[in-house]
Amino acid sequence: MLQLPVGMGEDFRGVIDLIRMQQISWDESSLGILFTSGPIPADLADQAADYRERLIEAAAEQDDTLMEAYVAEAPIEEPQLLAAIRRATIQLKLVPVLCGAALKNKGIQPLLEAVSQFLPSPADMPPARGMHPDTRDEIACHPRIPIRWPH
């Protein structure tokens, strides 16, 4: 779980980002397009700290690099945690869970960010294997990675 909901149902106001340890709230008047990040409310701080610890433990169980830091009780920095979650997700060992309300357009931006951060791109995957239709030889189909032109 990468986020905790703040409120439920009609009272859903936002989420607590357990990686960055901040609250994200969406603006109702912009239909969820605008959002702000800020400190976690005091009444949710202990719960957020508990769930962040669970997140780190789950990621560390799947990642030796993070486990070393966790066992040594070293501070776990955001880039370390993101990299460990990505590696475990690509290896199908973890499934990142986020929350939101699609009807109110709340949580869409963090969801899209998570897709780009944690899910594999075609370049991360082995080539697809197939059979040439004429020769029946096995062939490898490598993904076509778009060329990025300088701006």
Describe this structure in words.
The protein is of the alpha+beta class and 151 residues long. The chain has a single domain (3-121), classed as P-loop containing nucleotide triphosphate hydrolases (Rossmann fold), CATH 3.40.50. 35% of the residues lie in helices and 17% in strands. The chain contains 4 helices and 6 strands, in the order ββββααααββ. The protein has a 4-stranded antiparallel sheet, with no helix packed on it. A two-stranded antiparallel sheet has the order 5-6. Helix 1 crosses helix 2 (64-71) and helix 1 (42-62) packs across helix 3 (78-90). The longest helix is centred in the middle third of the chain and has 21 residues, at 42-62. The radius of gyration is 20 Å and the shape is globular. It starts with a strand and ends in a 10-residue tail after the last strand. The relative contact order is 0.13.
Order of helices and strands: EEEEHHHHEE
Determine the structural class based on helices, strands and strand pairing. alpha+beta
Beta strand count: 6
CATH architectural category: 3-Layer(aba) Sandwich
Stretches with pLDDT under 50, minimum 5 residues: none
Largest sheet: 4 strands, antiparallel
**What is the CATH first-level class name?**
Alpha Beta
Q: Quote the beta fraction.
A: 15-25%
What's the assembly state of these chains?
single chain
Quote the distance from N terminus to C terminus: 37 Å
Number of domains: 1
Percent of residues in helices comes to: 25-40%
Average pLDDT confidence is: 90
CATH level-four homologous superfamily name: P-loop containing nucleotide triphosphate hydrolases
Shape: globular
How many H/I helical runs? 4
Examine the coordinates and then state which fold CATH places here, giving the name of the CATH topology.
Rossmann fold
Main sheet strand line-up: 1-2-3-4
Radius of gyration: 20 Å
